[in-house]
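The aim of this short unit is practical: by the end, you should be able to scan a pair of folded records and say something sensible about each. We start with the first protein, listed as its amino acid sequence and then its structure tokens.
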Amino acid sequence: MFGGFFNSGGGGGGTNGAAPPSRPFLTPRATAASRPVANGPLTLIANHGVPQDNEQIAAVGVFGATGPVFDCPAAKGCYELTTFAWSPNGRWLAFGATSISHASDYNGLHLYNLATGRDVRLSRGDVLQLSWSHDGSKLAYLVSLPFPSPPGLVYVRDLTSSAPAELLDTRTAGRDAAPTWSPDDRRIALATRTVGSGARRHWFISTIALDGTHRRFLARGSSPAWSPGGRLIAYRGACGRIRLMRPTGKRIVPAAAGPGACAEIGVAGPPVWSPDGTQIAMPTRSGTYVMGADGRHLRLVTTESGLGTLLHALPAWQPLPKR
């Protein structure tokens, strides 16, 4: 079901415009936000109505129209986008590219500079669910490996070093997914699916230190997203919509959630926080929705799902420095 299963990515990256790095590529100064940021445009992977059936990372307009931020043209070997994340200062894009029915040297994890157009491939293989650390120095992401390997492994890559990404040793036999950084970048929240069958198999959310220690179970659920201020973690609850909790696991129920066992907010899609922590976006197959952090003012902003071809991508607001 994933591109890497069909296609290992080919040879070097230079022939299609993405040069492999020969030294430590970025410094935190290049990617970290030097001052508070505001919400820029909401962006997502768009593949409907895109010229020549290319994919784009596009900005959502006021009336749901989209405009390209980054093009993924087949002419240079870019066929499908699997995930993307903004640097904390909004100047860089990290993204994953794959191909299901074509061999391509372009496949892998890339960094793209919006100002210069420089495109650097950091590694081959499929990456999903990218998350950029708040200090700009690291990426966390999911790697999907061919059978019989576990279907979800979380890796952390230090962008200030030429060393390869390191496996986050969660010590679980199940599938890990959806890594999201604490505001101090010392811990990662993630979802894990237990091993079993039928009703015995479920997702749960925990936090863990970067060395794999001090794991803490928080709640049953999936798709965690740590708020920018660190006070809340949004996640998909038992009924499929959005729940809120403290990093301690204490559940917070907004008034908009209503009563009952399914007291949840929003729609059935993974949550994404805005940079200022006031809004939450949720991609679904029928379109992308946005609501206030308290669950009020839910609205459909575009009929683009934002999930991408492999249905694992998320939308994201571009951070913009406050003036």
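Turning to the second protein, read its sequence before its tokens, just as you did above.
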Amino acid sequence: MKALPKKNPLFHGASVTRITIVAVIAAAVVPSIWAVRASELLASTSAKSSGRQIEQVLRNAVEQKKVPGVVAMVSRGDQVIYEGASGKRDGAGNTPMTVDSIFRIASMTKPITSVAVMQLVESGRVKLDEPAATYLPELAEVQVLDDLDANTGKAKLRSPKTRPTVRQLLTHTSGFVYEFFDPQMHAYVATGAVPSSSQGSDGFLKAPLLFDPGSRWEYGISTDWLGKLVERVAGQSLEDYFRQHIFEPLGMKDTFFNAPAAALERLVSLHQRSSDGTLLEVPRKPVTSAKFFSGGGGLYSTAGDYLKFTRMLLGGGRLGKARVLQSPTVGEMARNQIGALTLVQLRSLAPQRFRDPLRIPGSLDKFGLGFGINTKPVDAGRSAGSLAWAGAFNTFFWIDPSRRTCAVMMMQTLPFSDDAAFEVFAQFERAVYETLAEAPPISTK
């Protein structure tokens, strides 16, 4: 992809922005100071106005103190049509946010792990409907937590009716859950039977199932097991596998489990919402090496890198000359894989980390192989059949195949599902689709 200009005279002020609008209208005037050929960058007055509206969403978010800083990017067809940053990367250091700022992306790691699994499926080394224990023998002994005595802490366990399959791990119908969303598992972890997933080790993988595989959908540690599966089958660490098979082919040079010191200089500070609604910057601590490579939530990345990942999926597994997946595989990942089951409303047992009730934008009701799916269009937003997910620090993405559009927005605040962050993202989505409404059709040539 051709590098974008470092500065764009369409925008000025507190935000650091680069924007290109893929539109060709004869009346457009391109300032001569750009020294850019008209064939490379043409913009209409109306398109510029819509671009400014996206920009204004970011500015307002910071000026109204909804978030301390934000980065957003949008792609349409094979073109990046918007890149913008607003606010501060580090309030204590008074460092401006930039589009190459590095964020903790938490559960936005999961779609990347899912792509890695599907690469192994394509190569014939993994089968979707095979019991996961075929590749991870320790899962052959996994039990279902049937009951827990609140007084004694004694658990009643039983064998599942069937063993969880790879497909069920990809769709969160395996029976594995998160203890901070499920009261019964929360109580089980409190007994000391297994460590909390918040400790940073992989001890939580010893947790039992909470229901028989395939009987319902519930978000959980399934994708961490898939990370282990990739390592076992590929014979290399998840970090090495991601770098070799996904990050390097796509040019994702700023995505890591262990970010190098030079990259950590661009790490965005975390802010916590206090009870009075103000945001408090969390003091920075030295970043330590990952205890294990969490396929469910361990990565650092930039909005630009993650946009490349979503563009690859929008392109049917291909970005530029790099092919990461075959198009039919991506089509299968984007299809409802849970039948009549629906996504359940998650309740938070960790209010500092997740606002209760938990919400993910887009009215997601179905699940594919690694992505939530909305079967109904979002009002003034994405089309039905779009793919999406999010990360605990209020990072978001969606992929809209019908409109050939994908978008990423990254903030770094807690709790997740915070009203202010949720509102900023909703306004961003509306502004994106207002931009698309004014743009000419994408050429099919």
